[in-house]
Amino acid sequence: MELGNNERRMMKVMLNDSSRKWSLEDLLDATGWSDQVHIAGAGKSLYEAGLVEISEKNISKISLGAAGIDANQKGLLEARIWSWMQDIEEEERTMQNLFDSGFERHEAGPGVGLLKNLGVSIVKGVFVFDNYDSITNEINSRIKFISRLADNPTEKSLLDEGLIDHFKTRKNLISIEESTIRTWSLTREGSKFDVDMLSEIEQIGQITPELLQGDSWKEAEFKPFDVNAPTPTPAGGRPHPMQALIGRIRSVFLEMGFSEIEGDYVQSAGWNMDALYIPQSHPARTMQDTFYLSEPSKVEVEQKYLNMWTRVHEYGDDTGSKGWGVKFDTNEAQKALLRTHTTVNTVRHIANNPNEPCRVFGIGRVFRQETIDRTHLPEFHQIEGIIHEPDANLPMLISTLKTFYAKMGYPDVRVRPAYFPYTEPSVEVEVYWRGEWLELGGSGIFRPEVTEPLGTEWPVCAWGMGLERLAMLVLGLDDIRELYQPDLERLQDMPIL
Ligand code: PHE
Question: How confident is the model at residue 223 (pLDDT cuts 50, 70, 90)?
Fold first, then answer.
């Protein structure tokens, strides 16, 4: 086998000390290479040629994780609670006193759990123990363990196994990094190799137009090209998966003959709710659910609409309805809020174009006071739409939504009866995914109490779906928060839509 230049250089270096075991650092130093890829590559070829032997040793290095660094500075949680216990009277050792002396709930709970595992128990609300020495010893050895790692990441075999196992069960206290250490040495055949054969040769690594114009290539030696060599995958830019999904939804609706509409985040309660015949006492209107604004605290609404909503809400006006039968508050209707659904956009679109049949959609951000968890965010997006025309009807609504989801790749859609204050009938839309029916949104035909004050007598098919819900399906996520975390590597690996 003909040796390449890298192999020649590495052999030459190794022959200077033919019985030595070379570490990576030694070889980088002696060859003058800065990239270890050369050593790995040349070493492998030399190994395949029977000239070099490679030995590998796996090691695990243990260092502190983020919580470990914190514990080393502030003190280990169980140690802090333990010393708090020693500093107060026996009968004062209660959970309440623990909170009062500054331990927060998220610390006190797990901290007491750790001490319970060491033998502390709670009798009539008071912490008690009868093995002071053994608890203190165990805690001290944990402290020592952590502070040793703070100074230096340490090879696993040098540390106490029991303590490693213990800290492994605690979140982010330690981190374990596995790595492989390699050494290279000459085989018997390698050490007999003739150094004079190792002068580096001139090879052509790249064919250029200039080269091909002359004749020199005819005599030249070409560097072999390994098409199987591993290479890094280039990370090009890509749209954020949510942007890509919005783009796809947009083109599906455009393809189905819909036009796009938009609206402002800041709206009056009137357009967001009263226009939709949501009673002013509805629980979703309270501050627990809706973000009301202090600046501006008021968004003016045309008197004409305030009058109409007053009549409709109080006694139904001439819509055929009896209304809610309670006094309507026009100040309430002019409170400023962050829109809680995009239905406000479609309703305003009808109010502005009452005599024009339309099919419109919008994709927009909405705001609700939600506690963040796996399936909830206080800011999310809805996919909203209406069909407003003389013959609009329920089957038309259902087949439109089915067509939309089928085009998005979810052909199994079903609807179930539902309730919204502004539609009758009302239906909930569900799609079948991985053996389950998932609820994706609400829809229905707007009630006359909604449409008549807007100035139309035609029926309106309306719907509002959760975009993030759909995104979780499309991207195969089970935690909604993953959509908005700036983890570039994860985002890079999400499917291209
Ligand atoms: N606005 C409703 C929601 O936020 C969805 C909906 C829109 C229901 C239109 C019926 C008609 O969940």
Answer: confident
Topology, domain 242-265+339-492: BirA Bifunctional Protein; domain 2 (3.30.930)
Q: Which atom of ligand 1 is nearest to the CA of 426?
A: 10
**What single DSSP character describes residue 420?**
B
Nearest CA-CA partner of 119 in 109, 110, 132: 132
Cα gap 182→410, rounded to integer Å:
51
Q: Is the pLDDT of residue 202 over 80?
A: no
Q: How close is the Cα of 443 to the center of ligand 1, in Å?
A: 6
Alpha helices, DSSP H, located in 324-393: 330-333, 343-352
Q: How many CB atoms lie within 10 A of CB 401?
A: 22
Question: What are the structure tokens assigned to 70, written together?
Answer: 């914190």
- CA-CA distances (angstroms) from residue 293 to 290, 298, 313? 10, 8, 24
**How much is the pLDDT for 492?**
87
Predicted TM-score of the model (pTM): 0.60
Taking CA 25 as the corner, what is the angle to CA 24 and CA 31, rounded to the nearest 5 degrees?
A: 85
CA of 295 to the centre of ligand 1 (A): 27
Please tell me the distance from the alpha carbon of residue 484 to that of residue 379, in angstroms, as a whole number: 11
Q: How far apart are CA 360 and CA 356, in angstroms?
A: 12
| Closest ligand 1 atom to Cα of 384 | 7
Number of Cβ within 10 Å of residue 35's Cβ equals: 9
Q: What is the mean pLDDT of residues 387-413?
A: 95
Q: How far apart are CA 209 and CA 197, in angstroms?
A: 32
Cα–Cα distance measured from residue 39 to residue 183, given in angstroms and rounded to the nearest whole number: 11
